[in-house]
C-alpha cells in the first residue's frame, strides 16, 4: 500500500498544479494540508511509539528522524545541527519514497516543492507539543541538488504557562 | 471487577467524551404508610433523605420515583410538588424509590474542568521539575487513574480499587482516540467526540481490560 500512497500523493500534487498557476500557491496549499495532517498524526505517533518527553531540541530532531520517519515512511534521514545556538537542524534524506515515480519537475514548475506536505506535517506535529518551528526544504534532489534536505528551525518556545507540564 | 467510567478532557479543560460503563445500582423501593418516618429535605433541585436511615435507604439518597413514576427534580411526574404530595395522608400508602442520584451532564462538565485545574495545581506543587501530574486518586470505593498525553489531552478512568491493568488501558484508549477520533476527517480537534467507531472500540477495550484485569474476588 506504500505504492498507492505515493501514487495518491502524486495525483494530489498534479491536481494542485492544475488548480493553481503559481508555484508558491501550490507550495502553500501543500504546507497547509500537511499541517492539518500533522496536528492529528502527532497523537497517533505518540500513542504507538510511547516515547518520553524530549528534553532538548536535538533530542526532538533525532526523534523525528529516527522514529517518526521510520514509522511512517520507512526511511531514516540523518540529522545534523547547523547552528551554534542549537536550534537549527537539518534532516538529510537520501531516499525519499514520495518521489519514487518522479523523474524531474516540469520546466514551468521550477520552484515547486514537491514534498512540501512533509514540511507541513512536521510543523503541525511540533506545534501540538508546544514547539514552534519553521520547516522548509533547503535542498531538493528534484531541483538538481545532490540530496534532499529539510531544515527545521525551532523558534522561541511558547511561554504558555497554562499548558506547561514542565 | 469493574471499570465505572471514562472521561476524556481536552487541552482547555473541557470534557469532550464521557462514558458510564458500569454504575452499581443501589436503588431501594419501599411502600410507606402515613406518617413517613424519613426526614426529607429539598437540596439542589432534588428531594433528599436528611435523616431516618434504614433498610438500605441512606442519608443523601434522592427520591427517584413515586409509585413507579420517575420524579422530575422536586416535582412528581404529574407536576405536583413531592414534599406536598408526601405530607398529604390521602396519598398513602405510597411506594417510593430511593437511590443515589446520577450526575447530570452539566455536573460532569464542571467536575472535569475542576479536575483539569487540580491537575495543573498538582504539577506545579511538585518539588521536582518535570512532574507527570496527578496519576491516581485513591478512595475506598474507587480509584481514579489519569494519563495526560504530550499534546495535553487527559484520559481519566474511574475503576474499582482492585482492578489492575489500568495503565495499559489508558494507553489503549489513547490509541483508540488517535485511530477513530483523530483520523476521522469530520471530527474537529478539541470538540466533543461523537464517533460511533470510537464508542464501539472503547467499550470493547473496557471489556477486555475487565476480563484480563484484576485477580480479586469476583463481584
From TrEMBL, chain A:
Protein name, as recorded: Trafficking protein particle complex subunit 3-like protein
SUPFAM superfamilies: Ligand-binding domain in the NO signalling and Golgi transport
Keyword Cytoplasm assigned: no
Family under the similarity heading: Belongs to the TRAPP small subunits family. BET3 subfamily.
Pfam family of the protein (one): TRAPP
Protein function: May play a role in vesicular transport from endoplasmic reticulum to Golgi.
Organism annotation: Asarcornis scutulata
One GO-annotated biological process of the protein: Golgi vesicle transport
PANTHER family named among the record's database cross-references: TRAFFICKING PROTEIN PARTICLE COMPLEX SUBUNIT 3 (PTHR13048)
SUBUNIT field: Homodimer. Component of the multisubunit TRAPP (transport protein particle) complex, which includes at least TRAPPC2, TRAPPC2L, TRAPPC3, TRAPPC3L, TRAPPC4, TRAPPC5, TRAPPC8, TRAPPC9, TRAPPC10, TRAPPC11 and TRAPPC12.
Any single GO CC term annotated in Swiss-Prot or TrEMBL for this entry: TRAPP complex
Matches recorded under InterPro entries: Bet3 (IPR016721), NO_sig/Golgi_transp_ligand-bd (IPR024096), TRAPP_component (IPR007194)
Compartment(s) of residence: Endoplasmic reticulum; Golgi apparatus, cis-Golgi network
Residue ranges of coiled coil: none
Keywords on record: Endoplasmic reticulum, ER-Golgi transport, Golgi apparatus, Lipoprotein, Palmitate, Transport
UniProtKB/TrEMBL annotation, chain B:
Quaternary structure note: Part of the multisubunit transport protein particle (TRAPP) complex. Component of the multisubunit TRAPP (transport protein particle) complex, which includes at least TRAPPC2, TRAPPC2L, TRAPPC3, TRAPPC3L, TRAPPC4, TRAPPC5, TRAPPC8, TRAPPC9, TRAPPC10, TRAPPC11 and TRAPPC12. Interacts with SDC2.
Main location per the UniProt record: endoplasmic reticulum
Biological function: Core component of the TRAPP complexes which has a function of guanine nucleotide exchange factor activity for Rab1 GTPase. Plays a role in vesicular transport from endoplasmic reticulum to Golgi and autophagy. May play a role in dendrite postsynaptic membrane trafficking.
Keywords: Cell membrane, Endoplasmic reticulum, ER-Golgi transport, Golgi apparatus, Membrane, Postsynaptic cell membrane, Synapse, Transport
GO cellular component, one term: endoplasmic reticulum
Pfam families registered for this protein in UniProt: Sybindin
InterPro entries per record: Longin-like_dom_sf, TRAPPC
BP GO annotations: endoplasmic reticulum to Golgi vesicle-mediated transport
Lineage top rank: taxon: Eukaryota
Protein name: Trafficking protein particle complex subunit
Source species of the chain: Asarcornis scutulata
Subcellular localization, as worded in the UniProt entry: Endoplasmic reticulum; Golgi apparatus, cis-Golgi network; Golgi apparatus membrane; Postsynaptic cell membrane
Family (UniProt): Belongs to the TRAPP small subunits family. TRAPPC4 subfamily.
Keyword Phosphoprotein recorded: no
